[in-house]
Amino acid sequence: MNRKRFSTLLIIIGVMLICVPLIGSLYNNYQQDKLYAQYEKNLEKEFTALDKTFTEVVSGDGINVAAEPEPNKDLDLVEGIMGRINIPAISSDLLFIEGSSSVQLKWGAGHVTGTAMPGELGNCAVAGHRNYTFGTYFSRLNELKTGDEIDIDYKGKPYKYRVTDSFVVNPDEVWVLGKTEKSIITLITCHPRGSGTKRLIVRGELLD
C-alpha cells in the first residue's frame, strides 16, 4: 500500500470515528422524542377520559356511568414516563421516568421512588447515567453552576428549579435522599465520569 492510499485510509477511519458517536447520539435523541410523543398522546387520552367521566358523573341522576377504560397497549414501550427534564446550561434534555433501575436510566433520568414529586414540598431526587457513549444524559452535570436552571415537565405542568449547590459523596451516603422542609430537587450521577466510586450531587430550589 503506497503512502497516498494509506493517508486516505487514515482519513476515512478518522471520519468514521467522528460520525459513529454523532449518529448514535442522533438515534438516541430520536428514540427519546418518539417515546415522549407517545407519552403526550397517552396523556391526552387520559385527560379526555377524565373529562368524559366528570361529565357523566354530573349528568342525569348523578350516577357514574363512565365506561371501563380500554387497556393502553402503548405503555409497554417504556413504563413510567412522566414528562421531561431539561437542563439548558449543559444541553441535557431527557425523558423523566418513574424509577431509577437500569431499565429506566437507559432511556432518560429516573425519579427515585419514595421521594417527593416535582412541585411538591420535600426532596425530589432524580438519578441519571454519566458514562454513556451516546447521548448526553448527566455526563456534563459537573459543569452546572449556582443559578443555572433545571426545568421539569411533569404530567403536562412545568416546574423550574434553580441550582443552589453541588458536591460529591460516597455511594452509601443516602442522607442526600432525605426529606427536606423546602421544595428542592437532587440530581444524582456517578463521579468521576466512567466510575462508580463516588456520587456527584447537584441541588436546586423550586422557583415560585
Describe the fold and architecture.
The structure is a single chain. This protein has an eight-stranded mixed barrel with strand order 1-2-3-4-7-8-6-5. The protein has two helices and eight strands. The chain has one domain: Sortase, Chain: A, CATH 2.40.260. The chain is an alpha+beta fold.
Low-confidence stretches: 46-76
- Structural domains: how many: 1
Summarize model confidence as the mean pLDDT: 75
N-to-C order of helices and strands:
HEEHEEEEEE
Distance between the termini: 67 Å
| CATH domain class | Mainly Beta
Structural class: alpha+beta
**Main pleated sheet:** 8 strands, mixed, barrel
Number of helices: 2
Question: Secondary-structure map with pairings?
Answer:
Blueprint lengths: L2 H55 L23 E7 L4 E7 L3 H6 E4 L10 E6 L21 E6 L2 E13 L13 E9 L6 E9 L2
Parallel strand pairs: 2-3, 4-7
Antiparallel strand pairs: 1-2, 1-5, 3-4, 5-6, 6-8, 7-8
Question: In a few lines, what is going on in this structure?
Answer:
This protein has helices spanning 3-57, 102-107; strands at 81-87, 92-98, 108-111, 122-127, 149-154, 157-169, 183-191, 198-206. By secondary structure, it is an alpha+beta fold.
Question: What are the main properties of this structure?
Answer:
8 strands, globular, Sortase, Chain: A, 208 residues, eight-stranded mixed barrel, alpha+beta, 29% strand
